[in-house]
Specification:
mainly beta, Cathepsin B, Chain A, eight-stranded mixed β-sheet, 2 helices, 35% strand, thiol protease, Peptidase_C1A, hydrolase
Amino acid sequence: MNTAFEYTLKASGIMREEDYPYTATDRGRCKFDKSKIVAKVANFSVVSLDEDQIAANLVKNGPLAVGINSVFMQTYIGGVSCPFICSKHLDHGVLLVGYGSAGYSPIQLKDKPYWIIKNSWGENWGENGYYKICKGSNVCGVDSLVSTVVALNTKSQ
């Protein structure tokens, strides 16, 4: 994640998601267009790994960048994902946008607190592009690498 933030500092900003959508193709070919920059990264920092602190930071500052092991995300269709066995090896970056206190988990057959994550795989994946994962035990490493970014708008969106 830090490498991505460092790139945005070096590239002088980021484009809108609509202008540079995830396509799962064109590996190795960057299509960054400086004329479409809408925000600049002023700074970034790692957030505490404590879930209460993560939630407080989310409420205070807005969405947070997180690393996650995405193996169970690939078959997600809805509900709260609470995999019993999931590696904490982080292989995907997503956006932590919220949390809830009582979402139904088909695997656990009961209500569980959860994080709400916005994925980059488009609106046809998951719940309109979002993923709910159990909160409380660093499931799939979701609490292992949490970062916040200070961004500056450069033009109206």
